Amino acid sequence: MNSALTPPELAVRTVELRGRAESLVNHLPAGAPLAWLSGEDGLVGWGEAVRLDLGPRPEGTSPTDTARFSDAARWIEGLVAGADVRDEVGLPGTGPVAFGTFTFAPTSPGTALVVPRVLVGRKDGRTWLTTVTDTPGTHPPELVHSRSPARPIGPVTWRDGSLTPEQWKGAVAHTVSRIRDGRLDKAVLARDAVAATDGPIDVRVLLERLRLRFPSCFTFSVDGMVGATPELLLRREGDRLTSLVLAGTRPRGDDEEADRALGEDLMASAKDDREHHLAVESLRTALGPLAEELDVPGTPHLLRLANVQHLATPVRARLADGVSALDAVAALHPTAAVGGTPTETAMRLIAEVEGMDRGGYAGPVGWVDGAGNAEWGIALRCARVEGRNARLYAGGGIVAGSDPDSELAETESKFRVMREALTEPPA
């Protein structure tokens, strides 16, 4: 394990796997798994060949500082340049792969990149194995492990997070007043909740439940951040980039008629349309200078997930020569969908009124490979899992028309993702 800015030389080998295509989660040992899953496809890894831990920037640093992204990009470039790579598959996610989690704010601790010793990936019906060692021709000891059964999570005790619901509604009301005074257009406020269990939480249980319940989302586990995000910050394959903007939310209805009515209300809502428009324009402004081509639809569509429905706009771009995936991540983070508008004003307000450090919540989470291919999401519908404790996060966009009770209800809908993943089903 190494956390220096100069990575060691690594021997990387990727080979195709044959046989039964079981859930990728089944390959994982207990411990600290790495995962990025979408339906049956994705990547899982374990063991640490090398990692990079980036400490917080000094207090007073601009909330839009991007040094952690440029430091990570240089580290990955050095790692790839010094690696002995034998890749027999040649798909995105083969060869050397670094899983990463970046903090929402530059002054927070918790940014880390990890290259696993062993990785199993699957895409379009093909499955592969990547091993990483310090010496060519050898195998990592982590390649052979006993498949211990996943541990049931058991009873869960819940308590309020940093603010009580009433205190958080007060923060929303205060934010609305600041917006109406003209100090900013939008701020995304989050709250937390805490779960405690009798024994250590087996992340594999959470990954499998989330993967099965939300196959259209990206289920992730990176350095303690675990969740299922609907929001793809970017996918990079070659010079092509795709992204998905989500802003504006309603719960799912109890029946088809109620569900349709909620969706129609969302599509007709001036408040939600304004919130979504700000998020789309934030992405357009950030990505424009990095792209040779940029395609942004004029109107959003309705995206229905298992627990909520969103206004959604897919974006496509062709990046300019020399622009890396992490360059694009740095430019896009934080989107208006998780920060606000203007960005710096909103981030300072968030730090002032939320009463907590977000850590990796609402920060970029995902992976990048040695060829520059990448998938990065925004860490939403997630929790920070440490031993027998999990800290859940949920938020919503606050604009001039926001109502504190409605915003609180929206966060409760979003909490359901991780609450249900942590709850044992009835016998």
TrEMBL record:
Keywords: Isomerase. It is an enzyme of class 5 (isomerase). Pfam families: Chorismate_bind (PF00425). It catalyses: chorismate = isochorismate. GO terms for molecular function: isochorismate synthase activity. It comes from the Bacteria. Its EC number is 5.4.4.2. The keyword Isomerase applies. The keyword Cell membrane does not apply. InterPro entries: ADC_synthase, Chorismate_C, IsoChor_synthase. Residues 165-414 form the Chorismate-utilising enzyme C-terminal domain. Residues 132-151 are annotated as: Disordered. Belongs to the isochorismate synthase family. PANTHER family: ISOCHORISMATE SYNTHASE ENTC. This is isochorismate synthase. It comes from Nocardiopsis coralli.
